[in-house]
Design brief:
Elements (H helix, E strand, L loop, with lengths): L8 H4 L1 E6 L13 H20 L2 E12 L8 E11 L3 E11 L5 E14 L16 H22 L3
Antiparallel strand pairs: 1-3, 2-5, 3-4, 4-5
The structure holds coenzyme A (COA).
Length: about 160
């Protein structure tokens, strides 16, 4: 297969909008956290597929933070962007917001998802590089390197 070219984060970025419906609620009349997690994981997966142009699996979800709740009829915006790539792994930052009718966005969740590109047998395969274009992307990359070291330490400890 031809080698996939390096890409800019903007090329794989995703913005998805959901309407919170009754079937999305938990017993406390808020958006069920597991449902939001599904939307987050799905968005991160799409970004990773766009970046590597192949199959991916989610290896880990870390730094997931529920900041505020969302409620029935809220409009939830999920924005996912590639922040860091390793050899076969890709880190995607996913920010979720509730959007008001005037367009104001209030953050409700931030997560970093670690995905791995795999071949048809599920073996990790090399991913294209990430072309960083501005200061905020370079800062995310540096923070991504630190998160990678922390993940490696946790893995060593068997977590
Ligand atoms: C993810 C998976 C392919 C990694 O396999 P593995 O044998 O550990 O592969 P490797 O040790 O070569 O690691 C591959 C990459 O994943 C990273 N990785 C593996 N486990 C990780 C973890 N728990 N946290 C963070 N990164 C991890 C490694 O750092 C490596 O990254 P790099 O190539 O950029 O350096 C394998 O564990 C797997 O298939 N897990 C199940 C995935 C799944 O079913 N997800 C749910 C549905 S999508």
């Amino acid at each position: 297969m031809a080698q996939v070219r390096d890409k800019r984060p903007e090329e794989s970025k995703i913005e998805q909008i959901y309407h919170v419906r009754p079937e999305h609620m938990n017993g406390a009349d808020r958006l069920f956290g597991g449902r939001l997690l599904e939307w987050i994981d799905e968005a991160a997966g799409m970004v990773a597929i766009r970046h590597c142009e192949g199959d991916v699996v989610t290896a880990a979800i870390d730094n997931l933070r529920f900041i505020r709740g969302a409620y029935k009829n809220d409009m939830v915006v999920v924005i996912a962007k590639m922040t860091y790539v390793g050899n076969t792994s890709m880190e995607v930052r996913v920010d979720s917001y509730v959007e008001s009718l005037d367009g104001t966005r209030r953050p409700i969740n931030r997560a970093y998802i670690l995905l791995v590109a795999v071949d048809k047998e599920g073996r990790p395969t090399k991913v294209p590089g990430l072309i960083l274009e501005n200061e905020s992307e370079r800062a995310e990359w540096e923070a991504g390197e630190k998160r990678r070291q922390m993940r490696a330490m946790r893995k060593e400890e068997g977590f």
